[in-house]
Amino acid sequence: MADSFVRALLVTNPKSGHGGVDLTDVVTILQANAWDITVRQKLHGDMATDLAREAVEQGFNVIVDCGGDGTLSEIVNGVAGTDIAVGTLPGGTANVWAHEMGISEKLPEAAMQLVTATRRRVDVGHVDVNGKHGTYFLLMAGLGIDAAVMARVNKKLKNRIGKLAIGVAAIGALPDVTVAPVHIELDGAYWQGKVSQIVIGNTRRYAGFTSMTPEAYANDGQLDVCLITATTPLFGLRQLASLTLRGKVSHAAAEIYRAANIVVRSPVLFPIETDGGVIDLDDKDLTPDGVVYTFRSVAQAVSVLVPRTYQGDLFEPATIETRAPLAPLKPTAHQKALATSNGSRTVEQLRKEAKWFHQRYQVLSIGGDMFTAAREKDGQVVKVVITPETTLKAGAESEYRPLWGQLTALSAEDIVRIKGIKGSVKRSIIAYRVKCMGPAALRSLQAG
Length: 448
Fold this sequence. Notes:
Shape: globular
Low-confidence stretches: 150-173, 241-247, 318-345, 440-448
Number of helices: 12
CATH topology of the largest domain: Tumour Suppressor Smad4
Structural class: alpha+beta
Distance between the termini: 32 Å
Number of strands: 25
Strand content: 25-35%
């Protein structure tokens, strides 16, 4: 790491993997590289979240997961939205994130990767059920069979035989597979049909050995959605064979989409898990109107330590100058509403009739074709809708370039000046030009 002084908290889990990890060599290497080290144990569920929050308050600038993906997920829930960097030493059973990042399974090598790592901002997902049980996830969330499997995993058996324990649990969960009709909203577009499983991926690996969302990026401000439409035992068997033997889903019984905001409405209570940890639901969560699962991407919410040798594809270039052009996006229902809510007039006609304004905003969150922002003068939060005509100027020396499909050029906390018009949907703006001044612009302005 490039930091001149690193104060790091290492969080271990004596119940993960095969009884925790031996940090003797790790601590020696980190201290030899001038890291100030504190080691604390996670002794019960969610304790790592509390330890992470305390680390932020106590001035640590790095927190290292030494207990597997479950401990990592708890840490993410404690630091989301802060500047503290999260590192990983593989100490669990699957170590999915460590594999994604190319982190060595040999702890001394992993420690060397930590001290030479670079910081990268990544998105996290957030889910709630009927507005409750809110939690963040770094890797993925699953509705249906995978959550039923994780709920059945015997932790003692998992510590003894590793991933095979998940296979044992899967066999036991097969009779409980639920197939139900669902209604799904994907950034304003709608999907209806029967599913047996839904996977919401922020990353690519699934269960440590296969992939359900093989083209996901961890920094694109969106989540990949895999809908398993296998509704018979035969289709289910084919899907399992494809995942095991080919390392990916069979498109004969699966559909994959991408969105920043996903709402799943179900008449039944699907079990749900995030990063391998089951969210406890009960009959009270099944209302007369069914169950509403709400997922959203929180763009660049966490800083992670990535080995300098990383050669994977999980990060999409984050600036207009380096990103490859994306395929054109289809207008969402929200944009169509903006274009048609005043009779048959188009967005262009509305622009000609409306009064233009120039105002400064702070970016709060980023979606696929819109972002939310707070107006600088009064803090009012608005939705900023991007159209194919919207342009962005990313710096004083740069030129205006198309912003459509390139929203990851912006980051949460950026100060932007928007030229646009009010949308016909309440508290919305149709942006024509966006000038990004960077996250420090407001602070330097106030300091002056």
